[in-house]
Amino acid sequence: MHNNLSEREVPAPPIKFLYNEPALLISHGAQKYLVIGDLHIGAEARFREKGVHIYSFAEAMAKKVAELLERFGAKNLILLGDVKESILYPDEVEAKSIRAFFKELSGYKIRIVEGNHDAHLSEVIGMEMEKEITIGGYALLHGNAWPSATAMSKRYIISAHNHIAVSMKDRKGGSYHYKAWLVSHAGPGMEKYYPQHNKEIRLVSMPAFNDLIMGINVAKFFQKENLNPLFRNSVFDYESSEVYLLSGEFAGTVHSLSQKPL
What pLDDT does residue 176 have? Predict the structure, then answer.
């Protein structure tokens, strides 16, 4: 382990990717933390505008989160930003859905990383936002901004923001779209921007938790313009990033997937 880590810091145990769920579990000491991102509460409005009405989706998400917390014995929940759909202040329908989500989970300790959609969220729910969270050997952030030097001294950076997904074809030519995980190694820009980084660091990019948001095929981002600054500036190597389906199946690297016809 790189000597930037505190002598008293216990190396981070492996991340547990939850089977067939867009969520992961981390541990530090006796504590377990369920981590999810990109809930986009209020995204149902996109469908209402097209005449499709979806009932109480925020409460359904909250019940799913509670079920995962109970199943894995976790009392801590970390939300990696974009909790709400609106960019600015939510309308009353969205605000009501947001409050319902947090009321359903009031028995758990919740920490929230502020995403680019989360302006005024603290006013709606009466909770403080954080720019990033560090726990043991993990740094957790939304992904739209640069991490701190402290975050880059950790073993794992866990990020949301880009709604990771992959499109694949089967042998019969059928096309399928899946949520996915992205695991990335340090790139050529790491030494320039973070010369004191953890030499074993990995970036884990999450799929969106909201089932209404499937995500964008990683191959579509190959030019990196819309990616987080760590990829845009080659701090982590996007092309060699490994793509895993929620089932745990290795789908290929971003580079290999970008070479396949969709």
Answer: 87
186 and 241 Cβ atoms separated by less than 8 Å = no
| CA 161, 129, 126, 34 torsion-angle sign | positive
Q: How many residues can be counted in the chain?
A: 262
- Residues contacting 57, CB < 8 A, separation 6+: 41, 43, 44, 97, 210, 212
For the ranges 48-52, 110-114, 212-216, the lowest mean pLDDT is seen at: 48-52
Map out the domains of the chain with their CATH numbers: 16-258 (3.60.21)
Kindly state the DSSP code that residue 146 receives in the 8-state scheme.
P
CB under 8 Å to 220, separation ≥6 — which residues?
none
Task: Name the packing angle between helices 57-71 and 92-104 (round to 10°).
Answer: 20
N-to-C CA span, the chain: 40
pLDDT digits (tens, 9 = 90+) for 217-255: 998 876 566 789 999 999 999 999 999 999 999 999 999
**HSE-up of residue 87 (Cα within 13 Å, Cβ side):** 0
User: Cβ-count burial of 173 within 10 angstroms (0-12 exposed, 13-18 middle, 19+ buried)?
Assistant: exposed
Sequential DSSP letters for 17-68: EPTTSS-EEEEETTEEEEEE----BTTHHHHHTTT----SHHHHHHHHHHHH
Residue 260 has what pLDDT? Answer: 72
